[in-house]
TrEMBL record:
This is Phosphatidylethanolamine-binding protein. One of its GO terms (biological process) is regulation of proteolysis. It comes from Clohesyomyces aquaticus. GO terms for molecular function: peptidase inhibitor activity; phospholipid binding. It holds the Pfam family PBP. It comes from the Eukaryota.
Amino acid sequence: MPQDPATVKAALGELEKTGKAGLQIHFPDIVITKPGTQTIKAATQPAPFISISSRIAKSKPTKYFSMCLDLDAPLPSFNFMSPILHEMQANLTGQGEPDAEGWIKLASDDEKPIAHWAPPGPPPFSSPHRYIFMIWEQSEDLASVEIRKRLGFGETVGLRPRPRWDQDACEKKLGLGKSLGSNYFTV
């Protein structure tokens, strides 16, 4: 079985240790605030947006880069296809002031994500899959065009490059460094 990438291991370890997520994941019918929240496929079909905790947000004007990975495909006990890239988005910026709980909604000025949202779809006989969102501060030289170029992506990221995603290589190619925060849910 593949090992979780180093950044993912660190993020999961931090979430387990503190119980505090740096991100909220917003779907129309559910907001994931607590790490490991279990939900159903139907609730996670529309593309989510994320909010960043004001305790980890950088001062304005900061751009952020986010990714979502499925860590358990096709089965948690036999995850040879993992991780699978489920979404990649650049140029995220804070939208206004923090809400009452200290969350700042993020949105992108790009017309589309680097890799569009691929909704969770674990097989019916599978135990729950973990879907982790991670966020990094985006350097000024990392515009969407440059990200696509460094990763060898065209305008659209189809299914072929998503399974067995090499997260460590991706982070190295993009010069990402340590992630600022994360959160995950299970389906």
